[in-house]
Design a protein that fits this description.
The structure is a homodimer. By secondary structure, chain A is an alpha/beta fold. Chain A has 7 helices and 5 strands.
Protein backbone atom coordinates (compact mmCIF):
# COMPACT_ATOMS: atom_id res chain seq x y z
CA UNK A 1 0.00 0.00 0.00
CA UNK A 2 1.21 3.47 -0.88
CA UNK A 3 1.99 5.72 2.10
CA UNK A 4 -0.44 8.34 0.83
CA UNK A 5 -3.27 5.79 0.99
CA UNK A 6 -2.51 4.78 4.56
CA UNK A 7 -4.16 6.31 7.60
CA UNK A 8 -1.80 8.69 9.37
CA UNK A 9 -0.92 8.22 13.04
CA UNK A 10 1.25 10.15 15.48
CA UNK A 11 3.51 7.89 17.57
CA UNK A 12 5.28 9.23 20.66
CA UNK A 13 8.86 8.01 20.44
CA UNK A 14 11.27 8.39 23.34
CA UNK A 15 14.11 6.23 22.11
CA UNK A 16 13.35 3.67 24.80
CA UNK A 17 12.45 0.02 24.36
CA UNK A 18 8.71 0.47 24.77
CA UNK A 19 8.09 3.24 22.26
CA UNK A 20 10.35 1.58 19.66
CA UNK A 21 8.06 -1.45 19.95
CA UNK A 22 4.94 0.71 19.68
CA UNK A 23 6.23 2.29 16.46
CA UNK A 24 6.75 -1.17 14.97
CA UNK A 25 3.26 -2.25 16.06
CA UNK A 26 1.60 0.86 14.59
CA UNK A 27 3.44 0.40 11.31
CA UNK A 28 2.48 -3.28 11.33
CA UNK A 29 -1.18 -2.26 11.78
CA UNK A 30 -0.92 -0.34 8.50
CA UNK A 31 -0.53 3.21 9.77
CA UNK A 32 1.66 5.80 8.09
CA UNK A 33 3.57 6.80 11.22
CA UNK A 34 4.70 10.29 12.20
CA UNK A 35 7.03 9.89 15.16
CA UNK A 36 7.19 12.67 17.76
CA UNK A 37 10.04 13.06 20.20
CA UNK A 38 10.12 15.67 22.96
CA UNK A 39 13.36 17.23 24.14
CA UNK A 40 12.20 18.10 27.64
CA UNK A 41 15.59 18.56 29.25
CA UNK A 42 15.88 14.93 30.34
CA UNK A 43 19.22 13.93 31.79
CA UNK A 44 19.48 11.03 29.37
CA UNK A 45 19.83 13.00 26.14
CA UNK A 46 21.13 9.88 24.45
CA UNK A 47 17.43 8.91 24.31
CA UNK A 48 16.93 11.58 21.66
CA UNK A 49 19.74 10.16 19.54
CA UNK A 50 18.24 6.72 20.05
CA UNK A 51 14.85 8.06 18.88
CA UNK A 52 16.46 9.32 15.67
CA UNK A 53 18.09 5.96 15.02
CA UNK A 54 14.93 4.00 15.78
CA UNK A 55 12.77 6.22 13.54
CA UNK A 56 15.29 5.92 10.70
CA UNK A 57 15.56 2.14 11.04
CA UNK A 58 11.76 1.86 10.87
CA UNK A 59 11.42 4.37 7.98
CA UNK A 60 9.25 6.79 10.00
CA UNK A 61 9.51 10.56 9.77
CA UNK A 62 10.56 12.09 13.09
CA UNK A 63 9.81 15.53 14.51
CA UNK A 64 11.55 16.64 17.71
CA UNK A 65 10.07 19.50 19.70
CA UNK A 66 11.88 21.39 22.47
CA UNK A 67 10.04 21.91 25.74
CA UNK A 68 12.29 22.48 28.71
CA UNK A 69 10.43 20.96 31.65
CA UNK A 70 13.36 21.90 33.89
CA UNK A 71 11.49 25.23 34.02
CA UNK A 72 9.20 23.55 36.55
CA UNK A 73 11.61 21.01 38.10
CA UNK A 74 10.24 18.45 40.54
CA UNK A 75 11.73 15.24 39.11
CA UNK A 76 15.01 13.36 39.33
CA UNK A 77 14.96 13.22 35.52
CA UNK A 78 14.85 16.98 35.04
CA UNK A 79 16.04 18.37 38.37
CA UNK A 80 18.93 18.09 40.82
CA UNK A 81 17.59 15.01 42.58
CA UNK A 82 19.58 11.75 42.62
CA UNK A 83 18.22 8.81 40.63
CA UNK A 84 17.68 6.03 43.20
CA UNK A 85 19.18 2.58 42.82
CA UNK A 86 16.45 0.83 44.76
CA UNK A 87 12.71 0.88 44.33
CA UNK A 88 10.92 2.85 47.06
CA UNK A 89 7.29 3.15 48.12
CA UNK A 90 4.70 5.23 46.23
CA UNK A 91 5.39 7.55 43.31
CA UNK A 92 9.11 7.49 42.46
CA UNK A 93 11.28 10.62 42.18
CA UNK A 94 11.88 9.79 38.50
CA UNK A 95 8.23 10.68 37.82
CA UNK A 96 8.12 13.85 35.70
CA UNK A 97 5.06 15.92 36.67
CA UNK A 98 2.32 15.69 34.04
CA UNK A 99 4.76 14.30 31.46
CA UNK A 100 2.39 11.97 29.62
CA UNK A 101 -0.36 14.59 29.70
CA UNK A 102 2.00 17.07 28.06
CA UNK A 103 3.39 14.55 25.54
CA UNK A 104 -0.12 13.48 24.50
CA UNK A 105 -1.17 17.12 24.15
CA UNK A 106 1.73 17.79 21.78
CA UNK A 107 0.85 14.64 19.83
CA UNK A 108 -2.75 15.85 19.74
CA UNK A 109 -1.72 19.18 18.23
CA UNK A 110 0.30 17.48 15.51
CA UNK A 111 -2.45 14.92 14.85
CA UNK A 112 -4.93 17.73 14.37
CA UNK A 113 -2.68 19.51 11.88
CA UNK A 114 -2.10 16.24 9.99
CA UNK A 115 -5.79 15.31 10.08
CA UNK A 116 -4.82 12.10 11.89
CA UNK A 117 -7.29 10.43 14.26
CA UNK A 118 -4.84 8.01 15.86
CA UNK A 119 -2.18 8.58 18.52
CA UNK A 120 0.07 5.84 19.89
CA UNK A 121 1.84 5.95 23.26
CA UNK A 122 3.87 3.23 24.98
CA UNK A 123 2.43 3.41 28.46
CA UNK A 124 2.33 0.23 30.42
CA UNK A 125 0.26 -0.59 33.47
CA UNK A 126 2.19 -3.73 34.44
CA UNK A 127 5.66 -2.27 34.89
CA UNK A 128 4.34 1.23 35.41
CA UNK A 129 6.52 1.93 38.46
CA UNK A 130 3.74 3.82 40.24
CA UNK A 131 3.37 6.67 37.73
CA UNK A 132 -0.24 7.93 37.86
CA UNK A 133 -0.22 8.86 34.15
CA UNK A 134 0.44 5.26 33.03
CA UNK A 135 -2.89 3.91 34.26
CA UNK A 136 -5.66 2.79 31.85
CA UNK A 137 -8.18 5.07 33.56
CA UNK A 138 -5.93 8.05 32.80
CA UNK A 139 -5.73 7.10 29.12
CA UNK A 140 -9.52 6.66 28.88
CA UNK A 141 -10.09 10.08 30.44
CA UNK A 142 -7.48 11.61 28.12
CA UNK A 143 -9.19 10.19 25.03
CA UNK A 144 -12.54 11.53 26.20
CA UNK A 145 -11.05 14.98 26.76
CA UNK A 146 -9.17 14.94 23.44
CA UNK A 147 -12.37 14.37 21.52
CA UNK A 148 -13.85 17.50 23.07
CA UNK A 149 -10.66 19.53 22.64
CA UNK A 150 -10.25 19.37 18.91
CA UNK A 151 -11.86 19.75 15.53
CA UNK A 152 -12.17 15.95 15.37
CA UNK A 153 -14.87 16.05 18.02
CA UNK A 154 -16.66 18.91 16.27
CA UNK A 155 -16.74 17.33 12.80
CA UNK A 156 -17.73 13.92 14.17
CA UNK A 157 -14.50 11.96 13.79
CA UNK A 158 -13.37 9.88 16.72
CA UNK A 159 -9.84 10.39 17.95
CA UNK A 160 -8.26 7.30 19.51
CA UNK A 161 -5.35 7.00 21.94
CA UNK A 162 -3.74 3.61 21.32
CA UNK A 163 -1.78 1.94 24.11
CA UNK A 164 -0.84 -1.44 22.65
CA UNK A 165 1.57 -2.20 25.52
CA UNK A 166 -0.77 -1.39 28.37
CA UNK A 167 -1.39 -4.98 29.48
CA UNK A 168 1.88 -6.55 28.38
CA UNK A 169 4.75 -7.55 30.63
CA UNK A 170 8.19 -6.28 29.69
CA UNK A 171 9.03 -9.80 28.46
CA UNK A 172 5.95 -9.86 26.21
CA UNK A 173 6.82 -6.42 24.80
CA UNK A 174 10.32 -7.61 23.95
CA UNK A 175 9.03 -10.81 22.37
CA UNK A 176 6.48 -8.93 20.26
CA UNK A 177 9.05 -6.35 19.14
CA UNK A 178 11.58 -9.03 18.27
CA UNK A 179 9.01 -10.70 16.00
CA UNK A 180 8.46 -7.32 14.29
CA UNK A 181 12.19 -6.86 13.80
CA UNK A 182 12.89 -4.09 16.33
CA UNK A 183 16.62 -3.64 16.89
CA UNK A 184 16.77 -3.15 20.67
CA UNK A 185 20.48 -2.41 20.65
CA UNK A 186 19.47 1.04 19.33
CA UNK A 187 17.18 1.79 22.25
CA UNK A 188 18.10 3.40 25.56
CA UNK A 189 16.05 2.75 28.71
CA UNK A 190 18.52 3.83 31.41
CA UNK A 191 17.67 6.93 33.48
CA UNK A 192 21.32 7.93 33.54
CA UNK A 193 22.81 6.62 30.30
CA UNK A 194 26.02 8.23 29.10
CA UNK A 195 26.34 10.25 25.88
CA UNK A 196 27.03 7.06 23.93
CA UNK A 197 23.77 5.55 25.19
CA UNK A 198 25.44 3.06 27.52
CA UNK A 199 23.33 2.06 30.54
CA UNK A 200 24.14 2.16 34.27
CA UNK A 201 22.62 -1.25 34.97
CA UNK A 202 21.42 -0.28 38.44
CA UNK A 203 18.50 2.17 38.10
CA UNK A 204 14.84 1.03 38.17
CA UNK A 205 14.54 1.23 34.43
CA UNK A 206 17.71 -0.81 33.79
CA UNK A 207 16.65 -3.52 36.21
CA UNK A 208 13.16 -3.81 34.68
CA UNK A 209 14.66 -4.00 31.19
CA UNK A 210 17.26 -6.64 32.07
CA UNK A 211 14.65 -8.76 33.84
CA UNK A 212 12.44 -8.46 30.75
CA UNK A 213 15.06 -9.89 28.41
CA UNK A 214 15.84 -12.65 30.86
CA UNK A 215 12.20 -13.55 31.30
CA UNK A 216 11.65 -13.45 27.52
CA UNK A 217 14.53 -15.87 27.07
CA UNK A 218 16.16 -13.49 24.60
CA UNK A 219 19.68 -12.15 24.51
CA UNK A 220 19.97 -8.65 26.02
CA UNK A 221 21.73 -6.36 23.53
CA UNK A 222 21.96 -3.49 26.07
CA UNK A 223 25.35 -1.79 26.15
CA UNK A 224 26.47 -1.13 29.73
CA UNK A 225 28.97 1.48 30.94
CA UNK A 226 31.08 -1.07 32.77
CA UNK A 227 30.95 -3.72 30.04
CA UNK B 1 -3.00 37.30 55.10
CA UNK B 2 0.63 36.37 54.52
CA UNK B 3 1.38 34.93 51.07
CA UNK B 4 2.83 31.79 52.66
CA UNK B 5 -0.54 31.11 54.34
CA UNK B 6 -2.51 31.47 51.12
CA UNK B 7 -3.45 28.58 48.85
CA UNK B 8 -1.30 28.55 45.74
CA UNK B 9 -2.84 28.66 42.26
CA UNK B 10 -1.43 28.61 38.74
CA UNK B 11 -3.01 31.21 36.45
CA UNK B 12 -2.51 31.05 32.68
CA UNK B 13 -1.67 34.57 31.58
CA UNK B 14 -1.50 35.53 27.92
CA UNK B 15 -1.30 39.29 28.24
CA UNK B 16 -4.79 39.63 26.81
CA UNK B 17 -7.81 41.22 28.41
CA UNK B 18 -9.41 37.98 29.59
CA UNK B 19 -6.48 36.44 31.42
CA UNK B 20 -5.56 39.76 33.06
CA UNK B 21 -9.07 39.76 34.51
CA UNK B 22 -8.77 36.13 35.62
CA UNK B 23 -5.54 36.92 37.49
CA UNK B 24 -7.29 39.73 39.35
CA UNK B 25 -10.24 37.45 40.17
CA UNK B 26 -8.00 34.66 41.48
CA UNK B 27 -6.05 37.10 43.63
CA UNK B 28 -9.32 38.56 44.87
CA UNK B 29 -10.46 35.05 45.85
CA UNK B 30 -7.44 34.86 48.17
CA UNK B 31 -5.08 32.73 46.06
CA UNK B 32 -1.32 33.24 45.98
CA UNK B 33 -1.03 33.37 42.19
CA UNK B 34 1.75 31.91 40.05
CA UNK B 35 1.24 33.25 36.53
CA UNK B 36 2.30 31.11 33.58
CA UNK B 37 2.87 32.50 30.12
CA UNK B 38 3.69 30.35 27.09
CA UNK B 39 5.89 31.64 24.29
CA UNK B 40 4.48 29.42 21.56
CA UNK B 41 5.71 31.40 18.56
CA UNK B 42 2.58 33.54 18.34
CA UNK B 43 2.75 36.37 15.84
CA UNK B 44 1.72 38.85 18.49
CA UNK B 45 4.83 38.69 20.69
CA UNK B 46 3.78 41.95 22.29
CA UNK B 47 1.37 39.72 24.24
CA UNK B 48 4.33 38.35 26.17
CA UNK B 49 5.48 41.83 27.11
CA UNK B 50 1.92 42.63 28.11
CA UNK B 51 1.87 39.50 30.31
CA UNK B 52 5.00 40.71 32.10
CA UNK B 53 3.47 44.14 32.71
CA UNK B 54 0.15 42.70 33.88
CA UNK B 55 1.82 40.23 36.29
CA UNK B 56 4.00 42.99 37.70
CA UNK B 57 1.08 45.39 38.15
CA UNK B 58 -0.84 42.68 40.01
CA UNK B 59 2.19 41.58 42.11
CA UNK B 60 2.14 38.01 40.75
CA UNK B 61 5.27 35.98 39.99
CA UNK B 62 5.48 35.10 36.29
CA UNK B 63 7.14 32.15 34.60
CA UNK B 64 7.42 32.07 30.80
CA UNK B 65 8.04 28.76 29.06
CA UNK B 66 9.13 28.37 25.44
CA UNK B 67 7.22 25.91 23.28
CA UNK B 68 7.41 26.62 19.60
CA UNK B 69 4.08 25.43 18.19
CA UNK B 70 5.20 26.61 14.75
CA UNK B 71 6.81 23.15 14.69
CA UNK B 72 3.33 21.83 13.89
CA UNK B 73 1.85 24.84 12.07
CA UNK B 74 -1.84 24.77 11.14
CA UNK B 75 -2.96 28.16 12.47
CA UNK B 76 -2.96 31.76 11.28
CA UNK B 77 -1.41 32.67 14.64
CA UNK B 78 1.62 30.43 14.25
CA UNK B 79 1.80 29.73 10.53
CA UNK B 80 1.89 31.56 7.20
CA UNK B 81 -1.87 31.98 6.95
CA UNK B 82 -3.44 35.45 6.80
CA UNK B 83 -5.46 36.62 9.79
CA UNK B 84 -8.97 37.27 8.41
CA UNK B 85 -10.74 40.60 8.83
CA UNK B 86 -14.21 39.11 8.76
CA UNK B 87 -15.75 36.33 10.77
CA UNK B 88 -16.29 33.15 8.76
CA UNK B 89 -18.23 29.94 9.38
CA UNK B 90 -17.05 27.16 11.71
CA UNK B 91 -13.66 26.95 13.39
CA UNK B 92 -11.59 30.04 12.48
CA UNK B 93 -8.05 29.88 11.05
CA UNK B 94 -6.79 31.68 14.18
CA UNK B 95 -7.53 28.50 16.16
CA UNK B 96 -4.21 26.99 17.33
CA UNK B 97 -4.51 23.18 17.35
CA UNK B 98 -4.81 21.83 20.89
CA UNK B 99 -3.60 25.12 22.36
CA UNK B 100 -5.68 25.13 25.54
CA UNK B 101 -5.00 21.42 26.08
CA UNK B 102 -1.27 22.12 25.90
CA UNK B 103 -1.45 25.27 28.06
CA UNK B 104 -3.46 23.48 30.74
CA UNK B 105 -1.01 20.57 30.68
CA UNK B 106 1.90 22.92 31.32
CA UNK B 107 -0.07 24.59 34.12
CA UNK B 108 -0.80 21.13 35.50
CA UNK B 109 2.91 20.26 35.60
CA UNK B 110 3.74 23.45 37.46
CA UNK B 111 0.78 23.04 39.83
CA UNK B 112 1.97 19.55 40.68
CA UNK B 113 5.49 20.78 41.46
CA UNK B 114 4.08 23.63 43.59
CA UNK B 115 1.59 21.35 45.34
CA UNK B 116 -1.20 23.61 44.08
CA UNK B 117 -4.67 22.17 43.49
CA UNK B 118 -6.08 25.13 41.58
CA UNK B 119 -5.56 26.23 37.98
CA UNK B 120 -7.22 29.28 36.41
CA UNK B 121 -7.79 29.80 32.68
CA UNK B 122 -9.65 32.59 30.92
CA UNK B 123 -11.73 30.58 28.48
CA UNK B 124 -15.06 31.97 27.55
CA UNK B 125 -18.00 30.18 26.00
CA UNK B 126 -19.93 33.32 25.01
CA UNK B 127 -17.36 34.98 22.77
CA UNK B 128 -15.52 31.75 22.10
CA UNK B 129 -15.28 32.30 18.33
CA UNK B 130 -15.93 28.62 17.58
CA UNK B 131 -12.82 27.20 19.28
CA UNK B 132 -13.64 23.66 20.47
CA UNK B 133 -11.28 23.97 23.47
CA UNK B 134 -13.22 26.89 24.98
CA UNK B 135 -16.36 24.86 25.68
CA UNK B 136 -17.47 23.99 29.24
CA UNK B 137 -17.67 20.28 28.35
CA UNK B 138 -14.00 20.38 27.34
CA UNK B 139 -13.01 21.95 30.68
CA UNK B 140 -15.03 19.38 32.63
CA UNK B 141 -13.35 16.53 30.75
CA UNK B 142 -9.93 18.12 31.26
CA UNK B 143 -10.47 18.39 35.02
CA UNK B 144 -11.53 14.75 35.18
CA UNK B 145 -8.44 13.68 33.25
CA UNK B 146 -6.12 15.92 35.31
CA UNK B 147 -7.24 14.24 38.51
CA UNK B 148 -6.20 10.87 37.12
CA UNK B 149 -2.96 12.19 35.62
CA UNK B 150 -1.24 13.46 38.71
CA UNK B 151 -0.23 12.76 42.28
CA UNK B 152 -3.20 14.87 43.42
CA UNK B 153 -5.58 12.13 42.29
CA UNK B 154 -3.46 9.44 43.95
CA UNK B 155 -3.19 11.13 47.36
CA UNK B 156 -6.87 12.11 47.37
CA UNK B 157 -6.69 15.84 46.72
CA UNK B 158 -9.03 17.28 44.15
CA UNK B 159 -7.51 19.40 41.42
CA UNK B 160 -9.83 22.11 40.07
CA UNK B 161 -9.76 23.96 36.75
CA UNK B 162 -11.33 27.37 37.36
CA UNK B 163 -12.93 29.23 34.46
CA UNK B 164 -14.43 32.33 36.08
CA UNK B 165 -15.13 33.97 32.69
CA UNK B 166 -16.86 31.04 31.06
CA UNK B 167 -20.39 32.45 31.19
CA UNK B 168 -19.57 36.15 31.05
CA UNK B 169 -19.98 38.43 28.06
CA UNK B 170 -16.98 40.54 27.08
CA UNK B 171 -18.74 43.56 28.60
CA UNK B 172 -19.26 41.75 31.91
CA UNK B 173 -15.59 40.68 31.97
CA UNK B 174 -14.49 44.27 31.45
CA UNK B 175 -16.87 45.57 34.11
CA UNK B 176 -15.69 42.98 36.65
CA UNK B 177 -12.02 43.64 35.91
CA UNK B 178 -12.51 47.38 36.16
CA UNK B 179 -14.00 46.96 39.64
CA UNK B 180 -10.92 44.90 40.58
CA UNK B 181 -8.60 47.60 39.28
CA UNK B 182 -7.25 45.88 36.14
CA UNK B 183 -5.41 48.33 33.90
CA UNK B 184 -6.61 47.28 30.44
CA UNK B 185 -4.29 49.69 28.66
CA UNK B 186 -1.54 47.15 29.48
CA UNK B 187 -3.32 44.26 27.76
CA UNK B 188 -3.10 43.24 24.12
CA UNK B 189 -5.93 41.34 22.43
CA UNK B 190 -5.13 41.97 18.75
CA UNK B 191 -4.05 38.97 16.64
CA UNK B 192 -1.60 41.16 14.75
CA UNK B 193 -0.48 43.83 17.20
CA UNK B 194 2.79 45.59 16.48
CA UNK B 195 5.89 45.38 18.67
CA UNK B 196 4.63 48.27 20.79
CA UNK B 197 1.39 46.39 21.47
CA UNK B 198 -0.76 48.62 19.27
CA UNK B 199 -3.83 46.91 17.81
CA UNK B 200 -5.02 46.59 14.18
CA UNK B 201 -8.66 47.31 15.01
CA UNK B 202 -9.98 45.01 12.28
CA UNK B 203 -9.34 41.39 13.33
CA UNK B 204 -11.96 39.24 15.13
CA UNK B 205 -10.32 39.77 18.48
CA UNK B 206 -10.11 43.58 18.09
CA UNK B 207 -13.74 43.83 17.07
CA UNK B 208 -14.93 41.68 19.99
CA UNK B 209 -12.84 43.76 22.42
CA UNK B 210 -14.04 47.13 21.10
CA UNK B 211 -17.66 46.00 21.20
CA UNK B 212 -17.12 44.84 24.79
CA UNK B 213 -15.96 48.24 26.00
CA UNK B 214 -18.79 49.93 24.15
CA UNK B 215 -21.39 47.58 25.58
CA UNK B 216 -19.90 47.97 29.08
CA UNK B 217 -20.22 51.73 28.76
CA UNK B 218 -16.54 52.12 29.64
CA UNK B 219 -13.82 54.04 27.87
CA UNK B 220 -11.66 51.81 25.63
CA UNK B 221 -7.99 52.35 26.51
CA UNK B 222 -6.78 50.22 23.56
CA UNK B 223 -3.93 51.77 21.62
CA UNK B 224 -4.46 51.42 17.86
CA UNK B 225 -1.80 51.49 15.13
CA UNK B 226 -3.57 54.22 13.20
CA UNK B 227 -4.45 56.33 16.24
Amino acid sequence: MNKSEQKAAVVLLSGGLDSATVLAMATNQGFHCHALSVNYGQRHRSELIAAENVAKSQSAALKTIDLDLRTFGGSALTDDIDVPEEEGEGIPVTYVPARNTIMLSLALAWAEVLGANDIFIGVNAVDYSGYPDCRPEFIDAYEEMANLATKAGVVGNRLAIHTPLIDLTKAEIIQEGTVLGVDYSMTVSCYQADEAGRACGVCDSCRIRAAGFESAGLEDPTRYKSA
